[in-house]
Write a structure and sequence with these properties.
Pfam families: TfuA. InterPro entries: TfuA_core. It is a single chain. The protein has 516 residues and is mainly alpha-helical. The protein is built from 23 helices and 7 strands.
């Protein structure tokens, strides 16, 4: 799947309208085959401003999830649906911001249609131009409504014909089935002749003026072609007052959903290829098997999980002042821009601007919590213990002070949630410490008990305390996305697959707007 960022519109199209006609209506767009599950996840970080869903797979393949459409809308993407799968999803998600266009959409929205088989049809593949082998029931309805309007049929006769087609599997609905049905045979001869002439000859294309799915697809593409870019600025998700959009939107959805979303998320390569995030998850799994070997700071990942993901700001979690958040964001954005245009950098790292804004707030808060708030929370009674720990380890008092500051943060989270380490864990931790140190390093039972609780939390992770959506490998990949490491790793993977050494420059490939 490829994407050309110069034309930030994506259209999923199949049998409803020939590609040549679509391009004549909306020439500046990336065209893809019928949408399937995961396609919007792959596109999201590439930052299209509009996605048009006309056709989509189902039945034998996984259909597009409502969740990925909602996530696109949540990230400021205008999602338009019409004609077929697009009309179905638009009718279901119109209350949440998806835009529906056309008669099929209106029928589903108003409850006139219920079954998804109404838009289904059997057709050839893309190489054979999606040639239809059956007739969608919505087109039959539209044609028979036209026949009623022209006084060829009565409403009762049209209803009888519709019911005869509803009883058939969608793969068997066609003009022959309609014109050989019992209700058709019961019509007067003149009526049969006029209706057969209206529907056209068997084997010929269905009359364009009766093809409702085609008309709706044309209406959707025409609307998008005539409308303005829905974005007001490049940073449309970044508020003028400096507050980060979506900063408090902590993702608490189940782990299966978060993993699926990451596996299918697209990372935009220089040549326009969208690389799936599954490659990064595989690397994360390898790195976490021996984190020290790969330079992974597991404790930092778990600490952020507790302080941010498992402690939403709405519950009065300590947070960095607004000026600290803004300064942190400015520094990090400057660093990212050093690698190129910001939009290109974040697309290469598989995140949207809204997600970046949220990560900026989270990382600013973590840094402030560790460097300012945590040390300030250390009880005065621990000062002597910190000095003893530093002496026993041969480290500086500042190093021990930072470690105890982190301990104070984790304990603040534990106290807020009413969590303490089991007694046997505390006893084992205390015994191990005293066995390794002499009497001069005795820091007292109270400090050792609290230390044991913080160390125990780091081994448990937030997932053990009800935050089942949290996973260490997902947290690691998110840290790579934020730092820009994700793009570097994927570039190395791409070059390795192509048989090129990591230091070799690649030729920039010309991407086409319709490749999938």
């Amino acid at each position: 799947m490829r994407y050309d960022p110069r034309v930030p519109i994506a259209v999923f199209l199949g049998p409803s309208l020939p590609l040549e006609e679509a391009r004549a209506l909306l020439p500046r767009a990336n065209y893809y085959p019928p949408v399937r599950q995961g396609d919007l996840y792959r596109l999201l970080a590439a930052a299209p401003h509009t996605i048009v869903i006309v056709d989509g797979v189902f039945h034998g393949q996984a259909a597009i999830w409502h969740r990925e459409i909602l996530e696109a809308i949540d990230n400021g993407v205008r999602v338009v649906g019409a004609s077929s799968m697009g009309a179905l999803r638009a009718a279901e998600l119109a209350p949440y911001g998806m835009i529906g266009v056309g008669g099929v959409f209106a029928w589903y929205r108003d409850g006139f249609l219920v079954g998804d088989d109404e838009v289904a049809l059997l057709h050839a593949d893309a190489d054979h131009h999606y040639r239809p082998f059956s007739l969608p029931l919505v087109n039959v309805r539209h044609a028979l409504q036209r026949a009623v309007a022209q006084a060829i049929l009565t409403e009762g006769q049209a209803d009888s014909l519709i019911r005869s087609q509803q009883r058939l599997p969608f793969t068997q609905r066609n003009r022959h089935a309609l014109l050989s049905s019992s209700p058709f045979e019961a019509l007067p001869e003149e009526t049969r002749t006029r209706l057969a002439a209206m529907l056209g000859e068997e084997g010929a294309p269905f009359p364009k003026d009766l093809d409702l799915k085609r008309l709706d697809a044309i209406a959707a593409l025409t609307m998008v072609a005539r409308s303005k870019d829905p974005r007001t600025t490049d940073d449309r998700n970044h508020r003028a007052d400096g507050e980060m959009a979506g900063a408090n939107a902590i993702d608490r959805r189940n782990r299966f959903y978060r993993e699926r979303r990451m596996r299918q998320r697209g990372f935009l390569a220089e040549n326009g290829t969208l690389i799936a995030g599954a490659a990064l998850l595989a690397q994360a799994e390898i790195c976490l098997r021996s984190p020290r070997t790969h330079g992974i700071d597991r404790a930092s990942l778990v600490t952020k999980g507790f302080l941010i993901d498992a402690w939403p700001e709405s519950t009065e979690r300590p947070r960095a002042p607004d000026d600290v958040r803004r300064e942190f964001a400015d520094r990090h954005l400057t660093k990212l821009r050093a690698d190129g245009a910001l939009a290109s950098v974040i697309a290469a790292n598989g995140i949207t601007r809204r997600e970046l804004d949220r990560l900026l707030v989270e990382h600013a808060d973590v840094q402030w919590l560790r460097e300012v708030h945590g040390p300030a929370r250390i009880p005065e009674s621990w000062r002597d213990a910190i000095a003893r720990v530093a002496q026993a380890r041969g480290s500086t008092v500042d190093d021990a002070h930072r470690e105890f500051g982190l301990m104070a943060l984790l304990l603040e989270w534990a106290d807020f949630h009413g969590i303490a380490a089991p007694e046997d864990v505390v006893a084992r931790f205390t015994a191990q410490w005293r066995a390794q140190q002499d009497d001069r390093a005795d820091i007292g039972d109270q400090v050792l008990s609290r230390w044991a609780t913080s160390a125990w939390l780091l081994t448990q992770t937030p997932a053990q305390f009800g935050y089942r959506c949290w996973r260490l490998d997902l947290a690691l990949v998110a840290s790579w996305q934020f730092s820009g490491e994700a793009a570097r790793r994927l570039t190395a993977i791409d070059r390795e697959k192509a048989g090129r050494p990591s230091g070799t420059a690649t030729e920039k490939e010309e991407s086409t707007a319709h490749d999938a």
